[in-house]
Amino acid sequence: MRNLLVAATVLLCPVISVHAQVGVSIVSPGVSIGIDLPAYPTLIQVPDYPVYYAPQVDSNYFFYDGQYWVYQGDNWYTSGWYNGPWQVVLPAAVPLFILRIPVRYYRRPPRDFRGWATDAPPRWGQHWGPQWETQRRGWDQWNHRDVPRPAPLPTYQQQYSGAHYPHSVAQQDTLRTQNGDDRSRTGQHSGLANTRGERQSGANGHPSMQTDQAPQGRQRAQQPQPQTQPWGTMQAPRSEPAQSSHGQRTQSAPEQRGQGPRDGQQGGADEGRDAGHGESRR
């Protein structure tokens, strides 16, 4: 009996260890997506877009507005440093100009992308369904002649590679501050639980200035910014303000028509009094 208990204890130990490892990996702030870059990657700007891509990385690897982005396994991941740790971003919260990257710059495009125009963005509405397309209405509509300038690359990260690469977010934030990387973020990375919500689309179906022209927003910091929403809760633009304004005009019209005769009567009375005074003077 004692031997059976000892054997059972030995058999259970690996199981407990495996469950503990799985639990730690789940609650960790970042996830591993199989990308292990030995050094800072070469990043080239996508023509006419404020986005960079990495032609030498065998992955859908991009940089936009201070963040690195990877599309893998039908998920978007983001990180403030070129080699992670990575965090998942909800489809409803991916930045607009990341969604607009042409298909040709995806180094590892999924099967769904095959047959699509390579010089156009992926058909995300077809890929993610009508609910997503309703939430992100107007994502593929923008002025191609008025595109914000790309954010500068954090080239100071080139000196941190291999064993010197900071894997903890706290250490990365410290190094970012030490290297003067205090560029303001635009709130587009709203799929993360610890970031600000994405800006709501404008009433005309086009994204707001804060979302569409994020890098330029750093130069125009004095302009008022729209209110934020919690991540993952984007809604279609509302039209109540326009309706209320029409309602005010509809209500004011009868008052103006009613005032017309009174003004005329008042004007006639004034003319009569003026005429009477004139006769008395004569």
Please outline the major beta sheet. Answer: 6 strands, antiparallel
Quaternary structure classification: single chain
What is Rg? 30 Å
N-to-C CA distance: 137 Å
Write the element-wise H/E pattern from the N-terminal end onward. Answer: HEEEEEEHHHHHHH
Uncertain ranges: 8-28, 186-191, 193-265, 271-282
Q: Helix fraction? A: 25-40%
Structural class per helix/strand content? alpha+beta
**Total count of strands:** 6
Side by side, the strands of the main sheet go 1-2-3-4-5-6
Question: Into which percentage range does the β-strand content fall?
Answer: 5-15%
Please tell me the overall pLDDT.
71
What report would you give on this structure?
- The protein is α+β, with helices and mostly antiparallel strands.
- The protein is built from 8 helices and 6 strands; from the N terminus they run αββββββααααααα.
- Strands 1-2-3-4-5-6 form a 6-stranded antiparallel β-sheet, with no helix packed on it.
- β1 and β2 form a beta hairpin.
- It starts with a helix and ends with a helix.
- The C terminus is likely disordered.
